[in-house]
Design brief:
By secondary structure, the protein is α/β, with parallel strands linked by helices. The protein folds into two domains: about 150 residues, Alpha-Beta Plaits; about 250 residues, EAL domain (TIM Barrel), CATH 3.20.20.450. The strands form three sheets. Strands 8-9-11-12-13-14-15-16 form an eight-stranded mixed barrel, surrounded by seven helices. A five-stranded mixed beta sheet has the order 2-3-1-6-7, with helices on both faces. Bound molecules: ligand C2E and calcium ion (2 copies).
Amino acid sequence: MMNREALFAAIQTQVEWAAAEAGSFAVIILRVRGLRDIALRFGYAQGELAEDRARVLIEQSMRPMDQVFRAGDDSFALVLPQMRHQNHTLLAATRLIRAFELPMNAGTTPWHGHALMGIALYPHDGIDADALCRHAEMALDDALRRGDQYAFYQPQDKQVEIVHEELRDAIDTNRLRAYFQPVWDLQRHRVAGVESLARWTSEQHGEVSPANFVPFAEQSDLISALTRWSINATLRHAAPLRGAHELTFAINFSPRVFSKPGIVEQLMDALDIWGVAPTSVIAEVTETALVNDLELSLRVLARLRDRGVGIAIDDFGTGYASIAYLRKFPATELKIDQSLIADMRDDMQTAKLVRAIVNMSHHMDLTVVAEGVEDQATQKLLAEMGCDYAQGYHLGRPEPAADFVARFKALPIPSAAEPPASDDA
Ligand code: C2E
Ligand code: CA
Ligand code: CA
């Protein structure tokens, strides 16, 4: 219902402006209480008239530069540029509240709306459209809970703030650790490369899984710092192995970083610094998660690929739009999600599906990696299907990157490393 694309585009424009000018702006989610009732009680036509009327009221109480978007049955999203202080926004909110204080007519039906607002400010409460809208919504919930007509966004949870600070600190002071998990070449029987996985031991929370802290970093401005860390931590360990074993180093990229400027340059600079070839690096991305600005993200990925960086579609088989996206995606590799691999040994249908994915990928010139291989039978089945690579506890658990490097450096070149459990085990 919400015209999210237009809204997000308008916010993105403001982000660019404000970032350049060190400025600030506001996103308001405004709910008109009573609006939905009109439609329910008097019909949709009356409801629409009331909605039009509400929109006019909003527009009349805003500046020409402000923008209104429909955001739901009874709500609007407003973008207010150049709000230097909370006070300026408060002023705008007050005008809106006032505008709804007089009774009005929707066609022939008299009604009385009531404005409720949640407010988020750039950059204080978020630095992109997604965060700003969500935080404005959360602020609206807050206002409703408290029975107020408006609320500014307040981080809900003190705990979250603490985690946020601690994680930022861990990234800044390089206290995250890189783990490497081997990727096994099923046809040539050797280690083909590694996937780099982040590990965090928090003083307060102990071992925190990346499955938990990565989404957390994504919601905040920490994701850029995390990405920079992942790139450098991986390449630092990759450097001593460069060239020698033809290993590839896969780095996980949060889909959101591809709609931020400078990611290609950042990776290229780091490759330069560590003396690692672009062709030794694979960027792993979950395809269905490329939601904001899909076209831009795909262009950035294509630029990486043009420079020789491999592009892997991560977690394939978990999303809805996988097949549709495949055509557009500038990928070189496809990683089949471990949920499919886990089932294929005991479920014929899943095994058939995996086989079909392997064949389809090869037709599209994609190499295929099976994730989450936990036993010999699955490994054998995959090898028979012609799957190129496999990864999983059966072939090697993630281990501190330094340990992997030390072990590997000691091997003769070209490497003939045995997997922990070989075919004849
Ligand atoms: P992923 O990219 O799908 O990574 C594979 C995950 O599966 C890893 O979990 C790995 O430890 C686990 N795994 C590997 N083999 C097996 C197996 O045989 N069985 C089972 N059950 N699991 C296996 P991990 O390390 O907890 O990472 C979780 C996710 O966090 C990753 O999923 C990746 O999306 C994300 N992640 C990890 N490190 C980074 C990072 O540095 N940056 C970003 N943006 N994301 C990261
Ligand atoms: Ca991955
Ligand atoms: Ca995966």
